[in-house]
Amino acid sequence: MKPIIRSYLIEINLGATVPGAGSQIFIQDYPTLRNIYLCGVMSYSSTTSAQSPNGRAVISAAGEVSISATFVDKYNQEIIHNYPLRDLDPYFTAGFYRDYKPFPLQLTKSYITINSTANLTANESVLLNILYYLEKDAATVRLSNR
Amino acid sequence: MLQQLDYQIGNNYQAVKTKRVNVEITANSTTNNPRFYFPDIPELNNVQIVGIEAHMARPFGALFGDLHYNFVGNNFWTVPLIQFSYLNLVNIDNELVIQNYPCLQLFNPTFPNPNININSVQKSGKIVPIYTRLLLRQCYLYIATAIPSNTTATATFTFYHLGKK
């Protein structure tokens, strides 16, 4: 696991009605996460976080199986395509989290896909912990890499 | 520029020192979504932090976690309080570098597995590597729920660092 330089928890709410199978939900704009390099992602279920920072219920561990995530770079390439949320959850991967070779993230074109509505409930939220660098972190990243 | 750096192969830092830090979670009356700030510990200011671990008294119905009593005999925090708690870390440049990190993930529990399950604690044993220099008095816990009146609990962490250089 690479050391975490910066992290930011984002929330994707499923809405008043759970979107149907095959639906894509785009991630909203977080100004902090513009012009960043994505280097890792974690997902959490209600086992780890009972309630989101905004006070919403978090999807269950069973519900994580129904969703996958796609992350797009600033050149509109789907660098991480339909990756299962469950495999981004350290609770189910022996405490590890996924590292990626850093790429410039375009968050607002990144999305989650509802593969099935099984075990998902309206108004639940998906929590993704975005691990990232800024351009100015290059020296820190170099120091942390040895 | 960042893309031209060698790809990191992992966290190869070994901590020189560790320091336990407690944050008291107290409320005389019901308090919605409170923040609890870390104490100012000069030993931890502007030192290179390389990892943070959370401890708790009782995870997921198991009898014991990894640390049960504090110095005055009260319990450390447990599930569900830790499941509502998020860690926010501010670096020495006053930037919020870690925003709403779920505290239970710093305990790093894992799905029950006979090969990695230690005394039902379900702790993976992996320390989350975090590489930063902190301004500890600006760091805080955010509790994403209302805590009831007369709450007294103690959140406790171990900071792994490289010492003053």
Write up this protein:
The complex is a heterodimer of chains A (146) and B (165). The mean pLDDT of chain A is 93. In chain A, the strands form two sheets. In chain A, strands 1-8-3-6 form a four-stranded antiparallel beta sheet, with no helix packed on it. A four-stranded antiparallel beta sheet of chain A has the order 2-7-4-5, with no helix packed on it. Chain A has one domain (6-136). Chain A has helices at 61-64, 138-144; strands at residues 6-13, 24-26, 37-44, 67-72, 78-84, 98-104, 111-114, 125-133. Chain A has 146 residues and is mainly beta. Helix content of chain A is 8%, strand content 36%. Chain B is mainly β and 165 residues long. Chain B has one domain. In chain B, strands 1-10-4-7 form a four-stranded antiparallel beta sheet. A four-stranded antiparallel beta sheet of chain B has the order 3-8-5-6. The two termini of chain B are 28 Å apart. Classes of the chains: A mainly beta (146), B mainly beta (165). The interface between A and B is large, with 48 and 43 residues. Strand 1 (6-13) of chain A pairs parallel with strand 6 of chain B.
List keywords for this structure.
heterodimer, A: mainly beta, four-stranded antiparallel sheet, 2 helices, 8% helix, globular, B: 165 residues, mainly beta, 34% strand
What strand line-up does the widest sheet of chain B have?
1-10-4-7
Strand content of chain B: 25-35%
Q: Using the CA coordinates, give the radius of gyration of chain B.
A: 17 Å
Identify the quaternary structure here: heterodimer
| Coarse structural class of chain B | mainly beta
- One letter per element, helices H and strands E, the order of chain B comes to EEEEEEHEEEE
**What is the percentage of strand-forming residues of chain A?**
35-45%
Number of helices of chain B: 1
Strand order of the largest sheet of chain A: 1-8-3-6
Span between N and C termini of chain B?
28 Å
Structural class of chain A: mainly beta
What general outline of chain A do the C-alpha atoms trace? globular
Quote the average pLDDT of chain A. 93
Total domains of chain B: 1
Average residue pLDDT of chain B: 83
* Morphology of chain B: globular
Largest interface: A-B, 48 and 43 residues
Which spans of chain A have pLDDT < 50 for at least 5 consecutive residues? Answer: none
Series of H and E elements of chain A? EEEHEEEEEH
Q: What distance lies between the first and last C-alpha atoms of chain A, to the nearest angstrom?
A: 13 Å
